[in-house]
Amino acid sequence: MLLEKLPAELWFEIFKFFNTDELLDSYYGLNNHFHSLLFNYFRKCIVNLQSSSKTNLNIFYEHYLPMLYNQIKLLRLYNNDDSPQQINLLLSQNFTLDRFISLRSLSLSHIESIEILYDMTTRLRHLEEFTRLTINNFTLPERDQSILLLINSIWSLPNLSYSQFDIANENEHHFPVPQIYSPPLKHVELINFYCRQRDLVHL
Which of 73, 112, 66 shows the shortest CA–CA distance to 90? Predict the structure, then answer.
């Protein structure tokens, strides 16, 4: 039996063991069948760009994203040493988050600019299906007011039900009390933050 004859659903289960970079390295350019499989997998499942090379990022942004951005449901973006300037490259292609109209979950990692984070979270307000936000390995700025603006922006997301914050600073920092009440938000996970007990009721 030829591997190409395997059902698409089985290929999708296999693809789940790989990130986007590994999938492109292994299957991109083989033939039209695998091009179609990758397209449908990215459309239905997670787009995980962790450790993606600049070459594969350009392939994904040029050949897949223009046809997929309005269908992607789960997106993971990184700006770490393995994937430098990944988010900046995405933004430079004019793919701002408000264009990802089907997006439900977003994971952001190693973003050093609070201005970029603030801009991205404000654009999430326009996404009716968006419910889950994770921010990992974020370096907390010294200006308390800037982090409060970011938290208020996140708490303003109309349908957000889950949020996780993990800062990269060595010492714990106080989590600022949001000035906005968010009824849909059911779960908040704080890593390397501390929160006074009297403030918990305001989260």
Answer: 66
Identify the three-state secondary structure at position 189: strand
Provide φ and ψ at 17, rounded to 5°: -80, -5
Angle between helices 20-27 and 32-44 (to 10 degrees): 170
The two structure tokens encoding residue 168: 């990269």
Residue 48, helix vs strand vs coil: strand
Distance CA 47, CA 45 (A): 7
| Token reading at 134 | 């994770």
- Give pLDDT tens digits for 21-76: 888 888 888 888 888 888 888 887 778 777 777 788 888 888 888 888 888 888 88
Residue count of the chain: 203
* pTM, full prediction: 0.79
State the greatest distance between any 2 C-alpha atoms of the chain, in Å, as a whole number: 64
HSE on the CB side for 110, CA within 13 Å?
A: 16
Does residue 176 sit in helix, strand or coil? coil
- Domains present along the chain, CATH in parentheses: 48-202 (3.80.10)
